[in-house]
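Hi Y.,

Following your request, here is the sequence exactly as I used it, all 535 residues.
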Amino acid sequence: MKNKIVKCPAGRLMSFSGIDGNTDFENGLILRGAFKFSGFDIKFPGDGHIAFENTEPSESVFFSDWFSCGKLRGVFIDAYHFIIEGPCRTDAEDLEIKIISENGKTLIGIKNFFNKKLILSDVDALIDERAKWSKQIVSEQGNKGNFFINALSQMKGQVYSPEGIIKHRWTTPDKWPHRRMWLWDSVFHAIGLRHIDIELAKNSLDAVLDVQREDGFIAHMADPLGISKITQPPVLALGYKLVNEYADDLEWLGAAYPKLKKYLQWDMKNRDSDGYGLLEWYIEADANCRSGESGMDNSPRFDAATQLDATDFNSMLALEFEIMAEFAETLGLKDDAASWRMLHKTLCNKINQRLWNGKENFYFDYDVTKNEMSEVMASSGFMPLICGACSKEQATAIEKHIYDSETFGTALVIPSIAVKSEKFYSKDMWRGPVWINVNWMVACGFRRYGMNDTADFIIRKTVEEIEAMFGKYGTFFEFFDDRCELDPSQLLRKGKNVPDSFHQPLFDYGWTATLYIDMLYWKYGPLHSETALSP
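Below is the corresponding structure, written out as C-alpha cells. Let me know if you'd prefer a different format.
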C-alpha cells in the first residue's frame, strides 16, 4: 500500500477509528496535514504542531491512522495517543495536549487521558493492526489502485464508535471541522460502504435513526450529546434500499420501516406551508447559509425567497414514497404499499403541474410567496429524473442540457447553477461548483430512463476529476470547479478562501470518497443492477 506523495498531504485528516476501538467525540485527538510546513497540525481538542525534519523521503504513505515517511513512522495507539518513531519537532500551544520524547520516539496525547507508558509501544505492530481493515478489503475485493486504497483509508477515519445518544457506529463527513453526524451524508457514506463492509454500512444508517425524535423528526446534524433543529434531504429509504440489496436482511429492514414512515410523515406535516402538496425547505436568515436544511446551503435558489416548492425536496420525497411501497410490499403491509404508491403518483403529478418549465425544458422551484416560478436554473432541476416524475419526452429534453454549453454542459458536469444563470454564478459552494452527490444522483436518474450513455458520461467525467485532483493534492475534495479554471483548493466557501481554515473546500471529504468507491464499482463491477433506480 504505497504511494508517491513525498510529504503529508495538506489537509489530510488523521484520527483513531471506531473500527478499531472506542473513540471519544469530545476528547479524541485529531491531526491534520499542515499547509505551511511538512508535518501535522494538532486540530482537536487543543492546538499544536508536529514538524518533520526529513522532508525528502523517496517513498511515503499517509493514511487516516498511520504513516510511513522515510525514517519517520507514526500511528494512533488509541483515541487519545499518537506515537512517532524518528526525527521530528513538536510543540503544543494548548494545555489540552501533552508531548514527551524518549529513545527516538515521541508520544503526543490528550493531557487528561495521557499514559506515558505507551511510549514503549511497538510501532510496527500497531501499524500492522491499523492496516488490517484495508488489507482485508483489498484481499477480498482486489486492488483497484492507489485511489481506491486511499478512499478506504479516509472512510475508515470517518468512523466513530457508539457513544451517548448514538447507539451504533456512525460516520462524519470529516473529523475536522464538521466532526458531527449529518443525515444525508450518512446515507451517501453507507452507499459506498455497502461494497466493502456491509455491517458498517447498516450501522451508519441505523445511527441516524438512533437520534430520531418521538414525533418522527430527524435532525440534519447530531452528535452523542444532542441534535440540531432542522432536518435534511429525505434519502434514508434510498440508503436502506441500496444497502439491503447486499445485506438481504428482512429483519433489519422491518425494524427501520416504522421509523422511516414516521420521518416522512413529519416532512409532509411540517414542510407544506400553502397546503398544495409540494414541500418547501426551511430557509434561514443567514446570508452565507440560507438553507442548510436543503444541503445546498448558499445556493442562489434561496437568495430572495422565503418559501419555495423545491424540485429536489419533492423529487427525493417521491422516490422515498416509491421505495417505501416496495418495503411495505416486501414486509406484507399491503395497505401501506397502496398508500405509498398513491402518494408517489400524486406527488409526481404535482411536480409536473407546478415545477416543469416548458420553455426551458427543465424543472424550476416555485416561489409560494410570490406565486411565480423561480428564475434560478439549478442542478436541482434534474432531480425529478430519480423518482420517475418525467415522461420519456421530458427526460430526453432534460438530457440535452448535459451537453448544452449554455446550461449544464460545462468542462466538468454538472454545475450547481446553469451557465445561462450567470448573474447568480460564483466559485462558491452551491453557486456554481460541482458536487459529487448531485452527479451520482443525476446519473442514477438517467439510468432509470435507460439513458446509460449519458449516465456513464457523468460518472466518467466525475471519476476523472476526483482522481486528477487527488493525484495532485492527495485528498478527496468537497466540491470542484465546473469550468476547470481553478483547483478545488482555490475555490470559495461561503464567501471566503482562507488556507488552513474551513472557509475553503474541505479536504478529505466524506461522500466524495464513498461515492467514488460506488462509482468504481459502477465502472468496473461487480455492481448490482438494482443501483439503477427502477422505472
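The domain at 240-531 is CATH 1.50.10.10 (Glycosyltransferase).

Thanks again,
Q.
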